[in-house]
Amino acid sequence: MTQSMTGARMVVQALKDQGVEVVFGYPGGAVLPIYDEIFQQNDIRHILVRHEQGAIHMAEGYARSTGKVGVALVTSGPGATNAVTGLVDALMDSIPIVVLTGQVPTFAIGTDAFQEADTVGITRPCTKMNWLVKDTAKLSETIHLAFHVARSGRPGPVLIDIPKDVQFADADYVPREKIKPSHYQPKVKGDIEQITRLVEMIETAERPVFYTGGGVINSGPAASQLLRELAEATGFPVTSTLMGLGAYPASGKNWLGMLGMHGLYEANLAMHGCDLMINIGARFDDRITGRIKDFSPNSRKAHIDIDASSINKVVRVDVPILGDVGHVLEDLLRIWKSRGRKVNKAGLATWWKQINEWRAVKCLTYNPSTSIIKPQYALERLEALTKGMDRYITTEVGQHQMWAAQFLGFEGPNRWMTSGGLGTMGYGLPASIGVQIAHPDALVINVAGEASWLMNMQEMGTAMQFRAPVKQFILNNERLGMVRQWQELLHGERYSQSWSESLPDFVKLAEAFGCKGIKVSDPKDLDDAIMEMIRYDGPVIFDCLVEKHENCFPMIPSGKPHNEMLLGDADTKNAIGARGAVLV
Amino acid sequence: MSPLNIKSGSSSHSAYDLRDPNAEVIESHTLAVIVANEAGVLARVIGLFSGRGYNIDSLTVAEVDHTGHLSRITIVTRGTPQVIAQIKALLARMVPVHDVHDLTEEGPSVQRELALFKVAGKGEHRIEALRLAEIFRAHVVDSTLESFVFEMTGTPEKIDSFAELMRPLGLREIARTGVAALSRGL
């Protein structure tokens, strides 16, 4: 039975049909009819943000920690343009979100009306797909299609722009199960011939490595489970990108740690020295490969990816497998088992001996201090005191983010939310709120730098209003630490604009928001302070004053291959040549 | 296919790609992209090229299936084999794109373009222009005492050479449609 209703009611009905429980948003003139409908129901919870960028990052945090599609609702013009950074962030990190924007009435489009912006034009390169719906009769179908597109294939952000008159007009609602199937059905099963070729390589490889990425997490918990089974059964070492942390447990015996620019020595040297690289849901990002010409020069490479355009984009691979990680790993395991579970035992033993020598370098060693809190020490203590808890971590962007990736251990997928591709400062605080809304009883910590954190600190108001007890763990070095580090290494120690002056008193700021502020500067007080933060029932701003000039190591300088890592300050003299300096 | 710098035998249907993967040779490819005829689709396709720094040498678009709401975009582009493969993959993953055909790689194809030429002149020049138009099988679609408009269809190369010949004879303006292309046979 079809049901006639207004476009605004249709929006709320379609969201319910899609199983949406939470919408992050901010009202405005062009979405008032939808807000009126939200007012008149109780199934969908609305989280009122303080800035539209916050709404998108919250939806991202929600999506990444649950595996569901995140939803945000904002108004036309500035509401939509404020959402743009979040959309690109979600696009780069393949996060499924649906963003609904209000638009001026159809008859006013193109007249430079109040709060008019060409939202679909502006967001076209920032979304996987977007739509301007000019006819209420097409609205419900478009919303259902949007959810399908956001979650299918390589996930990503989609946007629906809804003019105000379309929200007021009546039309028949098309339920989710009644819409005609979309032609957009990305292939999930991998080619069996290619998978068999990879199995043959697995059987003989002497120095194999699994190089895993966010694709394993996006594929769902079953993919992480299959990865674990495969790694345990073959005995191959596993490393991961920043995006993929948690897919294989940090406590697993085959775990090498994160790879890449600030990755672990053993992980990067394993990548450089391997004879078989099995890329599972990663994309040979420039933070991973370093100098392409010298990237893992002696290996055969296989690449499992759901996005054909990721395969052979940067690095030419020998075995391309187009498909969903979960589906491909299932076939891979089945075929490998049916052929007798063969691996090159002798080769692997030698390989592990080599890897253990690299591990013995203990690349994360830093100079400890009894008078100043080292940022690495702060994270070691945070890890020790929260290990085993139902814990989710988000981060901002910079040194603290890399230290968090190095020093915190993730045992499962969907526990680690960080802006990888776009590197969005200001991501962590709103993302932590999105995570907390999805997991009200969990311990949600945003590991932050003070500079990043200030970029979206208004969202503390959201955390207070909706009783999201997020812990803001700020490693305060009064610097833009990563910028400062690069200026030290690349720009003759000329620290142009990279310090944080006129910082707020974070404890007073916390009090102003009505939450708890904790300040700590003595390493002796750190454990008690962290415990106080964990035990406090409500949001906490934790101001941890740390060493101001600490550099993040290991580091592969720009333009260098994996085997030319810097392990500490002593290595940094003339480390980066003029050609490397032009790279980001 | 010699002008396209592709070794014979190399095609997407072949088990082996015979081209050097790291070759820096620039190839010209004609792509037929079947898309949903919806607002913004063309902008999305063009945005891919401008956003990632790829070339468009020629572009035509029109609805080809009214009931199915499908349009055909014909794009002539240039790049290394790796770039061409990337372009095709990026087009194919777009939600409103139904199909991507590389007419250059999939076998022989016919490529045609329509052009209009406005040529002004008197006396000998005028007669010479008419005579050449006849050789090129161009039609006169408009004439005044001092000008002609010629209409011609052909390959882009044929249109280029006709334009070259008309230039000294008083060529004022050219309008070209861009390439439309279909594969040969079934």
Give an overview in words.
The complex is a heterodimer of chains A (584) and B (186). Chain A is 38% helix and 17% strand. By secondary structure, chain A is an alpha/beta fold. Chain A is globular and about 70 Å long. In chain A, helix 12 runs antiparallel to helix 15. The model of chain A has no long low-confidence stretch (mean pLDDT 96). Chain A has three domains: 3-178, Rossmann fold (3-Layer(aba) Sandwich); 192-359, Rossmann fold, CATH 3.40.50; 375-545, Rossmann fold (3-Layer(aba) Sandwich), CATH 3.40.50.970. In chain B, 26% of the residues lie in helices and 37% in strands. Chain B starts with 26 loop residues before the first strand and ends with a strand. The chains are: A alpha/beta (584), B alpha+beta (186).
Task: Sum up the structure in keywords.
heterodimer; A: 584 residues; alpha/beta; Rossmann fold; 3 domains; 6-stranded parallel beta sheet; 20 strands; 38% helix; 17% strand; B: 186 residues; alpha+beta; Alpha-Beta Plaits; 5-stranded antiparallel beta sheet; 4-stranded antiparallel beta sheet; 9 strands; disordered N terminus
CATH topology of the largest domain in chain B: Alpha-Beta Plaits
Mean pLDDT of chain A: 96
Classify the secondary structure makeup of chain B into a structural class.
alpha+beta
Give the CATH architecture of the largest domain in chain B: 2-Layer Sandwich
Q: Biggest interface between protein chains, with counts per chain? A: A-B, 22 and 19 residues
Number of helices, counting only DSSP H or I runs of 4 residues or more of chain A: 24
Instruction: Please give the count of helices of chain B.
Output: 4
For the largest beta sheet of chain A, what order do the strands appear in spatially?
Answer: 3-2-4-5-7-6
Q: Unreliable runs of chain A, pLDDT <50, ≥5 residues? A: none
CA radius of gyration of chain B: 19 Å
Q: CATH superfamily of the largest domain in chain B, called what?
A: ACT domain
- Helical residue percent of chain B? 25-40%
Tell me what portion of residues of chain A adopts beta-strand conformation.
Answer: 15-25%
- CA-CA gap between termini of chain A: 57 Å
Determine the CATH superfamily of the largest domain in chain A: Thiamin diphosphate (ThDP)-binding fold, Pyr/PP domains
In terms of DSSP E residues, the strand content of chain B is 35-45%
The count of β-strands of chain A is 20
CATH topology of the largest domain in chain A: Rossmann fold
Q: What order do the helices and strands of chain B follow?
A: EHEEHEEHEEHEE
What structural category characterises the helix and strand content of chain A?
Answer: alpha/beta
